Amino acid sequence: MTDLGISEVTEWYRNKTVFITGGTGFMGKVLVEKLLRSCPVRRIYLLMRPKRGVDVEQRLDDMFNYKGPFEPSLSSSLSGASNQRTTLFDRIKQTQPEVLQKVFAVKGDITMEGLGLTDEDEARLSEEVQILFHAAATINFTEPMRVAVNMNMLGTKRVVSLAKKMTNLQALVHVSTAYANCHLQEVYEDLYPAPMDPGRLIQLTEWLDDKLLEEITPRLVEPRPNTYTYTKALAEHLLFNDGENLPIAVIRPSIVCGSWLEPVPGWVDNLFAFTGLLVGMGKGVLRSLYVRDDIKLDFIPVDVPINLMLVAAWNTAVQRYKPDTVPIFCCSTGSQKPLTMKALQDYLKRSVRAFPFNSPLWYPDGSPKNSKFMHQLHVYCVNIIPAYIADFIMKILGKKPIAVKLCNKMVKAVSALEYFMLRDWTFHTTKTQNLWKSLTPADQSIYHFDVSDLDWDDYIESYQKGCKQYIMKEELSSVPYAKKVMRRMHILHRLVQVAMMYGVWCLLSNETATAFYTSFFNGAARLLSLTPAFVAAEEAELSDLPEMSALPELS
């Protein structure tokens, strides 16, 4: 009961039993926290596998006490900052710690037949579970086809098989992606034709060896950019085909980022997608991006799709909002609250300066590039060459060289995102907005997934603070110290720039160098003047390039 009245969604969850795959992932943990804090469920089962010799019970305990992936920095200690860190579940521990006893780990694995469940666990889940959230998947863009198929497609197939045995199932919510059909510039909340028969692809992964499968993968996924988007699109078809007559809803979030409002603004615990770029820029490591200035970046705070998932499960059971077919809800910001690359640059510049990291490797002064050549040149000059120099110095000092390895990882990760930084999509969210309008004021207050009131400037600032607190494990009390470090780095950065400009000037002022580049440009000018047809052809070629919206639809 709230000041706005009774929450129908909350009451529907009362005494329900929930089963979650992917519950230890980024979205999964936020889902568990929201269920415990807002929904009076009876029990939550999490499918978990032992990892690195740690059993599932210990992993569950670790999840409730997780404090972040990095150790506190030396500068945090120097600044006198406390090492006590907020965890995702602190709010629950302070107000209703007893609800943590509702969560149980079930030993299993999404990649194994029957989900790796024992007969006893399968029988218990089949009898008790009323709500199933399937969020397990690999989100690695460069995953080998065999691995992506096993996790994203066969994993979904195995979950559906279990769902059919659940005698009291009222809702199965599947987490897909808005980019499942990224070969289309305009995407509606519909099931699009499959790029190939899902069963046939599964057979190919069973018949072909790794080398041959790797060779044909680019041709299989084309025009999609990677195995992730390809297998997620096919997983939707497996869900619809195998899950006929099951109470299904599909959620398609765009690029999931740190939290907006819940449980605390800016919470994040991994370096995936935009978080890795934000940390790389803040540390001064990532200094160039190959992007288009005019594109819309479709980021979605993690708490938005989580609230949508909870409401979609309720709606699937009670059918308050009834679409014509199995509902697919797109969860994105581009149509309601577009964020342009240019605006993001301004927000980032302010937030990184306001809440800098304590130990940046260099002054964060990177910039986007519209030219791939200039971007690659910048990466070589500012990242790759210095990395080799750093490793050479480390070898002389008798220490382990790691700079080149880290630099290559960063370059590879950024390259995997280029496809999404150079294209613009329109994701329609009509069904999602209609579902929102069908809610009571009380439910809209508790399960907020409308992004019309999202302030990007405030959000990016809270995101930067979240990266500082939860990723870098630096207290906000260390901001004055970090700003001092930033000022010193800025001075050093400018001195290095002046020194480099002076070196270039000395080189170009050399008589031999001057004669060389003068002869080169004079020769080039004479050549072009003799071939005016070349200039006309080039202009015609550039004028004929189509806009993204004019590209033919690919299937």
Short description:
By secondary structure, the chain is of the alpha/beta class. It has 21 helices and 13 strands. A 7-stranded parallel sheet has the order 3-2-1-4-5-7-11, with helices on both faces. It has a two-stranded parallel sheet with strand order 6-13. Strands 8-10 form a two-stranded parallel ribbon.
Task: Write a structural description.
- With 555 residues, the protein is of the alpha/beta class.
- The chain has a domain at 8-67 and 89-274 and 295-338 and 424-454: Rossmann fold, CATH 3.40.50.720.
- The chain has 21 helices and 13 strands.
- It has a 7-stranded parallel beta sheet, sandwiched between helices.
- Helix 7 links the parallel strand 4 (131-134) and strand 5.
- It starts with 7 loop residues before the first helix and ends in a 12-residue tail after the last helix.
Strand order of the largest sheet: 3-2-1-4-5-7-11
CATH topology description of the domain at 8-67 and 89-274 and 295-338 and 424-454: Rossmann fold
Summarize the main sheet. Answer: 7 strands, parallel
Low-confidence stretches: 68-85, 531-555
- The residue-averaged pLDDT reads 85
Rg over C-alpha atoms, rounded to the nearest angstrom? 26 Å
Which CATH class of the domain at 8-67 and 89-274 and 295-338 and 424-454? Alpha Beta
Label the CATH architecture of the domain at 8-67 and 89-274 and 295-338 and 424-454.
Answer: 3-Layer(aba) Sandwich
Task: Classify the helix fraction into a percent range.
Answer: 40-55%
Name the overall outline.
globular
Note the main attributes of this structure:
51% helix, two-stranded parallel sheet, seven-stranded parallel β-sheet, disordered C terminus, 9% strand, 555 residues, 13 strands, alpha/beta, Rossmann fold, 21 helices
